[in-house]
Amino acid sequence: RHKQHRTMGILTIYLDKATNLKDEDVVGKSDPYVKFSLEQNNMMRDKDYGDMKSTTKENELNPEYGETFTFNIPSLDNMELTVKVMDDDIVSDDKMGKCKLKLEKLGL
C-alpha cells in the first residue's frame, strides 16, 4: 500500500540569475546549472521530496535563467531546501557553490 502524502502547499522557486561565478574550468568558462533538493530532516530518517535542475548555461559566469520550479510540500516543519550551483563537465560535475535554507525559518 502506498501512503498518500498530504500537501500543505506548493513551494515555488523563481531562479532569476547568478552573478560573478568563479570560473572552475581550465579551458573555457564554466557551464553552470542550479540543482534544488528538498528534504525533511527528521530525527530518525530524512525524507526526500525530490530534485530539480535548471538548464545549463555554457561558457557563462553571469548566467540568466528566468526559470520557475515547484515542489509540493506537506509541511514547513524541518523542511530544508539545498541549492547547489554546479559546473557541467564531461567527466564529473564540479560544485561551484551551495547553501541550505530552512523553510520554517523563512516566515512563509
Description:
The chain is mostly beta strands and 108 residues long. 0% of the residues lie in helices and 49% in strands. The protein has no helices and 6 strands. The protein has strands at 9-17, 32-40, 47-53, 64-73, 79-87, 94-102. It has a 4-stranded antiparallel β-sheet with strand order 3-2-5-6, with no helix packed on it. A two-stranded antiparallel ribbon has the order 1-4. Strand 2 and strand 3 form a beta hairpin. The N and C termini lie far apart (33 Å). The mean pLDDT is 90.
Q: Which class of secondary structure composition applies to the elements? A: mainly beta
Number of helices: 0
Shape: elongated
What's the mean pLDDT score?
90
User: Level of helix content?
Assistant: under 10%
Strand-residue proportion: over 45%
Q: Topology as H/E string?
A: EEEEEE
Radius of gyration: 16 Å
Strand arrangement, major sheet: 3-2-5-6
Q: What quaternary form is this?
A: single chain
Separation, N- and C-terminal Cα atoms: 33 Å
Number of strands: 6
Low-confidence stretches: none
Largest sheet properties: 4 strands, antiparallel
Any key phrases for this structure?
4-stranded antiparallel β-sheet; 6 strands; single chain
